[in-house]
Amino acid sequence: MESLRDVKRSMAREAAKGSCPLAFERLEFPENPYQSILSEEKLDLTLAYLLRVKGFSQYAGKTVINNVYMDLDFLCRKPQFRRTRYGMEREEVYTKVQRHKKKLLPDYGGKLCLETVHCLFRLPEGEAEKYRMVYEGRKTYGFAMSNKYILGLFACCEAARKTAAWDGVEIGHLTEEEQRIVQLEVVRDVLFQALLLDDVEYSGNELSASLYSIYCL
């Protein structure tokens, strides 16, 4: 498995080739980061929303290709993370997660939850103006990044989430039970994860995107 140091070196090479030098800054837990999933119907709706499929395909704009999704092999044994270009690929991921769901047998009696954390990224000073653009009549930003670079950003987010309890991330506003989830003490398995870079907020020199994890507790 590639170390985080190797990932960052690869990202530096990609930036030298022209990828936008967006850098992971920190992880934040919002006021209410946990939502219980109390039925299979709610779980399926959540998965469809995150993957922008089924009734949520209308939200799959051009930037959906920047999202990073947890994918599985045929036997659902080895998770990997990938980007998708077409709706059909996201539908395939949805189908695999459905098989994974049957294997994990989630408990809808308060033992399945959706976690939302905010990943904050920063551009080098003075770089923001280079990436201004107008999309569908609205002023926004466009960040051109290679596949390796985006997967590298995800790796940084995932590493920060795994070590959140030891990295000084502010979690004092969470309940004791929620803090145990942050520390992964009560997490039995991860049903699905996604970093949604098609839905970002930009303020000052910082960009915020959400990392979603569905945990079986």
Which terms summarize this structure?
217 residues, alpha+beta, two-stranded antiparallel ribbon
> Helical element count?
5
Order of helices and strands: HEEHEEHEEEHHEE
- The overall pLDDT, averaged over residues, is 90
Shape: globular
End-to-end separation in angstroms reads: 26 Å
Per DSSP E runs of 2 or more residues, the count of β-strands stands at: 9
Query: Hey, roughly how much beta strand do the residues contain?
Result: 25-35%
How much helix, percentage-wise, in residues?
25-40%
Low-confidence parts lasting 5 or more residues at pLDDT below 50?
none
> Which class best fits the helix and strand makeup?
alpha+beta
Quick recap of the structure?
By secondary structure, this protein is α+β, with helices and mostly antiparallel strands. 30% of the residues lie in helices and 28% in strands. Helix 1 runs antiparallel to helix 4 and helix 2 runs antiparallel to helix 3.
Explain the layout of strands and helices:
Elements: H1 4-16, E1 23-28, E2 34-36, H2 40-51, E3 68-71, E4 80-82, H3 87-104, E5 112-122, E6 132-135, E7 138-141, H4 147-162, H5 176-182, E8 189-203, E9 206-216
Antiparallel strand pairs: 1-5, 2-5, 3-4, 3-8, 5-9, 6-7, 8-9
Helix pairs in contact: 1-4, 2-3
What features would you describe in this structure?
The protein is α+β, with helices and mostly antiparallel strands and 217 residues long. 30% of the residues lie in helices and 28% in strands. The longest helix has 18 residues, at 87-104. The chain is globular and about 50 Å long. The relative contact order is 0.23. The mean pLDDT is 90.
